[in-house]
């Protein structure tokens, strides 16, 4: 608990004009420093006094002129500020608490003077009598401020909190929409990429397959080499379930499994066929007709791609995209926190203190005593050499 000090009182009376509001703010600053009010409390107090005096100037003396008297008194534990005027009476108790949600949504400005005064000060009272209006505000310095709210009523939220929640919600919504659109496009891009790789592998087998299908000879060296190439492809690409070389009638001439050779399958269809847990594509094996310049299909290369492999690749892409989205949200939250800390530091930065500034008279006294000592030393030096052993003060 802070030590109780003798009550000190400061007063200022100025005409109720906007050009004197700066003088009132400076008066509150000087009085607050003399009363040793903490900087962050003093900044809030200046704002409350400025709002109250601005209301008096703009509304109290709207069609007339007068004066404003500000009286500040404090004892180290608490301080009070009294604002007196003779303008139009205005009872603060008739002002309802504003709906901050409407202010946030409509970006409304102004109209929060009474609300700010009640928020920044511990106790606010208004009194009207024959001698004028008196607004009395008090602030306690020896304990934390506690706020009571109505039972069952919603908790109070500041404008900064409302703006922060709405900004974070907007960023989250934008990130979610972007994530959905990018994910939709990425799924198609990953699927097309894997099908393109499978088609490229099938085309690499077109040349050796054309020689076998043009001159079919069971268990030839060319057929053995083709089967070895197919097994190597399946080993290098685990996402492939099967690779087969078929003739125009559907007979198998190349496969990764020996028991499938020379068996018959359905005549292949054009395009990509999705069958259960696999996607199958057919790449034609073409041969040019002599003398006509046209090509005809000797057979087909059937490549079956596992659906689970496509899902795994898509899932990895989604994890990477979700990580980027999460880092974006965290970066936004961190930036908001840094800005709040910077604003708080700039608000609570230490101001000038009267205790650390020596008075001008004291400085002049020190300068005069040093000059006098130097003159005396020079005088003694003329009469005696002894003084030269010690340095003269400067």
Could you provide a short overview of the structure?
The protein has helices spanning 21-34, 39-60, 100-106, 113-120, 159-204, 206-214, 221-236, 307-347, 360-383, and strands spanning 8-15, 67-74, 78-85, 123-129, 132-140, 240-247, 252-255, 272-275, 278-288, 295-306. By secondary structure, it is an alpha+beta fold. Among the domains are: 8-145, Histidine kinase-like ATPase, C-terminal domain (Heat Shock Protein 90, 2-Layer Sandwich), CATH 3.30.565; 178-313, 2-Layer Sandwich (Beta-Lactamase).
Helix content: 40-55%
Please provide the count of β strands.
Answer: 10
How far apart lie the N and C ends?
Answer: 45 Å
Which class best fits the helix and strand makeup? alpha+beta
Average the pLDDT over all residues and give the rounded result.
Answer: 78
At the first level of CATH, what is the class of the domain at 8-145? Alpha Beta
- Which H/E pattern describes the elements? EHHEEHHEEHHHEEEEEHH
Main sheet summary: 5 strands, antiparallel
Give the full name of the CATH homologous superfamily of the domain at 8-145: Histidine kinase-like ATPase, C-terminal domain
State which percent range the strand residues make up. Answer: 15-25%
Number of helices: 9
CATH architecture of the domain at 8-145: 2-Layer Sandwich
Any overview of this molecule?
The chain has helices spanning 21-34, 39-60, 100-106, 113-120, 159-204, 206-214, 221-236, 307-347, 360-383, and strands at residues 8-15, 67-74, 78-85, 123-129, 132-140, 240-247, 252-255, 272-275, 278-288, 295-306. With 394 residues, the chain is α+β, with helices and mostly antiparallel strands. Among the domains are: 8-145, Histidine kinase-like ATPase, C-terminal domain (Heat Shock Protein 90); 178-313, Beta-Lactamase (2-Layer Sandwich). The chain has a 5-stranded antiparallel β-sheet, covered by helices on one side. The protein has a 5-stranded antiparallel β-sheet with strand order 7-6-10-9-8. Residues 347-377 and 379-394 have low confidence and may be disordered.
